[in-house]
Each structure stands twice: as C-alpha cells, then as structure tokens.
Amino acid sequence: MAHINLLPWREAALKAKEKEYYTILTAVSLFAFVIVLAVNFYFQSRIDGQNSRNQFLKNEIAQLDIQIAEIKTLNEKKEALQKRIDVIEQLQRSRNVGTQVLDEIAKIIPSGIYITELEKQGNSVQLTGKSESNNHLANMIRAIELSDLLSDATPESITADDGSPKLLSEFKMKVKIKGLVDESATASVNKRARKR
C-alpha cells in the first residue's frame, strides 16, 4: 500500500505539459517576431540607403544639367565671338584694299585697253573702259584669273563704236576681290552682336 498514489497526478502532469507547451509557444513566437523585425529592419535600412543614393544622384544630375546649359551658352557666345573675330580679321586685311586693287589693275591691264571708270560694289569692282581688240580683253581676263587679289572676271557687255576713228570697242566687266568680306555679311553679324 505504500506505493499507491491517490493524488491527481495525471492532471498535474497534464498541467505541467500545458505550461511547458505554452512556454515553448511563447518563446517560438517571440523568436519569430524578433526574426521578422530584424529582417524588416535590414531591408528597410537597405531601401533607405538606396533612396538616399537615388536622391544624391538626382541632385548631381540637376547640377550637371545646369552646367550643361551654361556650357551651351558659353559655346554659343564663343561661336558668335569667333565670327566677329573673323570679320574683324577680314576687315583688317581689306583695309588697304583700294590701293591694292588700283595697283593690281595697273599691273594686269595690257596695252590697248583704257579704263574710263572704276566702281567698287561690295566685294566686286565694276570696270568700264575701251579696248582696241577683243584679244586684249581676253589677255586681261587671263591676267585677272592668275592674279592673287582679283578673280571671276565676268564681261557684261562689249560694244563696238563705229563713229570712233580708232575703232575702239567699249566694255563693262565685273571682277571679284578675293578675301574681301561682303558688307551684307558684316551687317548681319553686327545685328546679331547687338541682339545679344
């Protein structure tokens, strides 16, 4: 009789097992919550880091856009300035063009041709004169084409004067001056410069 236990040991064992079960369940739940919280914190920190990098890149791109716009305006100013410099250099070269043209015409006119009128129009010269023969005019045109200052000799008219005792023919010829800036081009560059 000494080994008979009359206490409700089955209920006590069941209660102990339930207590152990709830303790393990609470520990597992707490552990799972901590893991979920840690994973959430890790990925949130990664997202925040990426967002901050994205914002940094956006700020840098905005600054680069501003610098690109400044570079474009500087390039436009540089091109306009270069055009003005080119015009000034051409004007500088053509400063003494009047005396150079007269000197060159005196060199290339063969005997038998007489210039009666010379008129400058932009970057070309209108020659009016008299010639003893068309061969002299052809020689003069060849000399103009070989010239370093003059080019594009274009005869506009050749008329024979029957009333003249020497049978001189009158001619009109247009000749271009090489390297001389056109006045219309200078005016357009000056207008663009004033607008800026």
Describe this structure in words.
The protein has helices at residues 9-93, 97-108, 134-146, 183-195, and strands spanning 113-121, 124-131, 150-160, 169-177. By secondary structure, it is of the alpha+beta class. The chain folds into two domains: 13-108; 112-180, 2-Layer Sandwich (Alpha-Beta Plaits), CATH 3.30.70.2830. It has a four-stranded antiparallel β-sheet with strand order 1-2-4-3, with helices on one face. A hairpin with an 8-residue loop joins strand 3 (150-160) and strand 4 (169-177). Helix 1 packs antiparallel against helix 4 (183-195). The longest helix has 85 residues, at 9-93. The termini are far apart. The mean pLDDT is 83. InterPro entries: Extracell_DNA_Util/SecSys_Comp (IPR052534), PilN (IPR007813). One of its GO terms (biological process) is type IV pilus-dependent motility. Keywords: Coiled coil, Membrane, Transmembrane, Transmembrane helix. Residues 47-94 form a coiled coil. Pfam families: PilN.
